[in-house]
Amino acid sequence: MNATVTPLTSRPAWQALETHARTMRDVHLRTLFAGDPARGQRLTAKGAGLLLDYSKNRVNDETLRLLARLADESGLRDRIDAMFRGDRINITEDRAVLHVALRAPRDAAIVLDGRNVVPDVHAVLDKMAGFAQRIRGGDWKGHTGQRIRNVINIGIGGSDLGPVMAYEALRHYSERGLTFRFVSNVDGIDLVEATRDLDPAETLFIVSSKTFTTLETMTNAQSARDWLLAGLGGDPRAVARHFVAVSTNDQKVSEFGIDTANMFGFWDWVGGRYSMDSAIGLSTMLAIGPDNFRALLEGFHQMDEHFRTAPFERNLPVLLGLLTVWYTSFFDAHTAAVLPYENYLKRFPAYLQQLTMESNGKSVTLDGGQVAYDTSPIYWGEPGTNGQHSFYQLIHQGTRLIPCDFIAFAHPLTPLGRHHDILLANAFAQSEALAFGKTLEQVQAEGVPAALAPHRVFAGNRPSNTILADRLTPQTLGALVALYEHSVFTQGAIWNINCFDQWGVELGKALAQRILPELEAPDDSALRHDSSTNNLIRWYRRSQQRGGTLP
Ligand code: G6Q
Q1: What is the C-alpha to C-alpha distance for residues 217 and 194, in angstroms, rounded to an integer?
Q2: Ligand 1 centroid – CA 209 distance (Å)
């Protein structure tokens, strides 16, 4: 793949979009809908069991044509092919990016460095399935012979957010006789709260870490080991029955004391934030069982195939990605809200924050230049209807443009009276209100006093997508996650950035490693930071009655 392409802002489609955007800025969604009675049906697309209604976006056919042209001029097709082919598109780490291989069917072939990686993927899946069956069936016993009833995943970032989100999202399908908890923060309270009411004899820890060197995870794993041994009489042989590892690093796993027979592997071509469908999903498989996990993978795969083969104008991730570029680059939108009308998806926005912002929060192009345009918006969100009673005010009447993704399902997993009708009525009402608003004339016609009328006006013209599916199943969740993964990829291709590295997290990590011994040293004479940081360190040392100069 040739990383050197025409700079984005010099591409003809970009320049045409700049001109076009100036005319679109004054066009109201009311006008667009009035001018095309079929718009609501026409601007929809389907793929992998999802329906995307993108009609409430500030676009017309010309916009969509130009955005598709921009995708062509940006080499999106080649980039998609390069990823699926296993090219080393993560150029700063010289790695292939093959999360799509994690969900490839058993008979597929994806060859990397002369080796078909698909059988390796399925060997790990089979091993996970065997282990899951033993835990779920009570055949795997703890050190004292008791069955496992509690599973604690220890991991952070990509080794935590996906597992947490998937567990919450698929709780309906989970084995309720097992308790699942997730420990990520090095703040000791995370582990303390997760373990305080559990019996170590019935508790399994999954230490999930691609590198098996991450400070937070290793600190938590060590303290978990201490907790376990303290509760089980101190016999170190207990570790083998109560700890398993998910990692790419056999050596570090065995150094920690975990038998590599109880290790589930993955590969350097799986990025952390793209790993919830690898062995990092072991906790998910323990919760929902191997068949449901395979259905999750199937949903991912269906969206992969849709992304790889559907024409751009009907391609859900491409449309979603291009619309994000449209608002970010031509409407100066700084954020994007994700609003699931499905309580099980309450951790989905948090999951997406890492996926989107760690991937596309970049300011250097693939060829090392500075970008001359904004890249990833800030993603945020909460489930509806809760958000409606909180921040939606700003989306409706604030000064900022916030494109929204509404996510909803036809059927609830556990029907309860009229709840689902009320939930969906709210979802549809919000996107309608955002798009069409309420004019001053309408407000006045309602008899609102003149002084109040301006406060009651809704300008409208606030864009949104609505993503619909039949119900939240493992398959749907896989398709939904892959939809956003590939939307992120589409955005990155247009912006000509590397979605797959994360150097931005390195500096803080390195400085923390330097400060830690300074917090714990006998005196503070060696501090060489700026005066603020020195002062903060001294403040802390003083609070701990450690020696040194008082601030
Ligand atoms: C994700 C990032 C990052 C990573 C964590 C945990 O894409 O690389 O969030 O997942 O830092 O890393 P380990 O799995 O190596 O502990």
Answers
A1: 14
A2: 7
- Which ranges constitute the DSSP H helices of 244-289? 250-256, 282-288
Q: How confident is the model at residue 551 (pLDDT cuts 50, 70, 90)?
A: low
Q: Is the CB of 99 under 6 A from ligand 1?
A: no
Q: How many CB atoms lie within 10 A of CB 515?
A: 16
* pTM of the model as a whole: 0.97
Q: State how beta strands 203-208 and 243-247 pair.
A: parallel
Query: Which atom from ligand 1 is nearest to the alpha carbon of 157?
Result: 9
pLDDT of residue 33: 98
Q: Which long-range contacts (CB under 8 A, 24 or more apart) does 124-127 make?
A: 124/264, 124/265, 124/266, 124/278, 124/279, 125/290, 125/293, 125/294, 125/297, 127/264
CA–CA dist 331, 402 (Å, integer): 10
CA-nearest residue for atom 1, ligand 1, is 272
State if residue 273 touches ligand 1 by the CB under 6 angstroms criterion.
yes
Is the link from the previous residue into 385 a cis peptide, with omega within 30 of 0? Answer: yes
Asked if 484 contacts 356 with a C-beta cutoff of 8 angstroms, the reply is: yes
Just list the catalytic residues: 358, 389, 509
Q: Which of 140, 100, 103 is nearest to 125 (CA)?
A: 103
Q: Which of 263, 270, 278 is nearest to 212 (CA)?
A: 263
How many angstroms does the Cα of residue 217 sit away from the middle of ligand 1?
Answer: 10
| Predicted confidence (pLDDT) per residue in 171-199, tens digit | 999 999 999 999 999 999 999 999 999 99
Q: Is the CB of 209 under 6 A from ligand 1?
A: yes
Q: Sheet harboring 243-247: ordered strands across? A: 179-183, 150-154, 203-208, 243-247, 263-265
- Nearest Cα residue to 66 out of 21, 107, 111: 21
* Pocket of ligand 1 contains residue 159 by CB under 6 Å: yes
DSSP 355: I
Burial (CB < 10 A; 0-12, 13-18, 19+), residue 158, is buried
Residue 225 CA to ligand 1 centre (angstroms): 21
